[in-house]
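Deliverable D5.2: sample structural annotation.
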Amino acid sequence: MKKIKIIFSAILVLTALSTTSYASTPSVKINRPAFDTVPKAKSSPLIDLSDFDNGIKELDKAVTQMSKKINDVDWNKMSKDLNNTLNKIDINKMKEDIRASMKKIDWERVNGDVKKSLTDANEQIQKAMKEIDAQMNSEKIQAHKDELKKDMEELKKDLQKNKDELQKEVNKTKPKTEPAKS
């Protein structure tokens, strides 16, 4: 408990210090001359200690105020309240509530839903695989059709060429006959 008091008081003191140092910082407005001048020599190299003394006085004042505020806090009451709140939490009741909630879950229904979802997903995958196979087969058939058409065209050309050659051969071997006179 003492550690909490020390940490809390340290935070409060640091807050007070930063607040007082910020509040006591004067805002300085620098007026620059419109022409260039040589800086004047400083009249005295000594530092005015009255500002430091004033700052220390303000700091002491803030520390005493913080000490009063910290002493005003009833740490014993705060500790008792915290312990009472923690003691009011019934861990066993929480465990029982969790067990009861777990029993209320219909595990058979959950398992059935999961199985059904898996079955549906499997059916969709199978259907997609069949569609892919059909599409691939269709593409293969189309490729074979194209190849067969090319082969058929080549065969027609070859047959026509052979036919023409045979016709020429037949024409060469045919005896020349004269047409009959009537």
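Annotation notes: Helices lie at 2-24, 50-72, 75-88, 91-104, 107-173. The radius of gyration is 53 Å.
The annotation will be released with the project's public dataset once the embargo ends.
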